[in-house]
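Working notes for the structural subgroup meeting. M.R. asked for a predicted model of this chain before we commit to crystallization trials. I am recording the input and output together here so anyone reviewing the notebook later can reproduce the run.

Input as submitted:
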Amino acid sequence: MTHGLGSDVKTIAITGGARGIGFETAKELIRRGHRVAIGDIDEAQAKEAASELGVEVVAHLDVTAPDSFRDFLDLVERDLGPLDVLINNAGIMPTGHAHEEEDAVTRRQVEINILGVIFGTKLALLRMLPRQAGHIINTASLAGELAVPGLATYCGTKFAVIGFTEAARQEYRKSGVQLSTVRPTFTNTELVAGTAGAKGLRNAEPEEIARATADLIERPRPFVRVTRLAGGAVSAMKFVPRRIATGLSSALGTDSVFLGDVDMSARQAYLDRIREN
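Returned structure, recorded in token form:
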């Protein structure tokens, strides 16, 4: 049973679909009646997620390797039909002072958060442009619009995702292919484990990002910010003097939420996993 506007059933591929926002997005899209495939670097977790979701098309996917990405999309189209939507959701978010970040961790963020999105977008375009139809949704972040201490590399990657997607959206605006970004506030997944969040602004739940992404498929727009309050705050910060904006950020606690106030023991399992994968 499909749901809402634009209720035709679509074939949708999601990267980083084994956990968190990717998993909840798959769950929401299945609820709305769509055909969903998930790929993830963690093959065992991806298979477990697929079993729980009832997803039949699941694969090991390294978004930093174009051949792996191409194989994943080939599998999706072979088993589910022409790709209608690609959701480039895979991403990692280490925290800490920029000068202390290991080079390997810096490189991994750039490879997954930026190159993975670019590779996926290009591969999807090659399939969608001949059909003059399709939608590519790249998961960015409100940290791609507003700088956050302790997330320098992560912010840089998400600024890049927004810039890349906006440029590509304009480039292909007459092609029939839509390009969009989803820009979540900090969301209660393992990415924010050990952190308290900004004062006065609640973290989003992954189900909220999932619903926003599903709505974006049904009513395409250039981007959506989640939550509305956090998105409005970020948007407003762009129109106040830098000194005032910096003061407001300090008042919200964002100067320390990803630095001195982090419980590293609570983040250790996540950090170990992203290093291993």
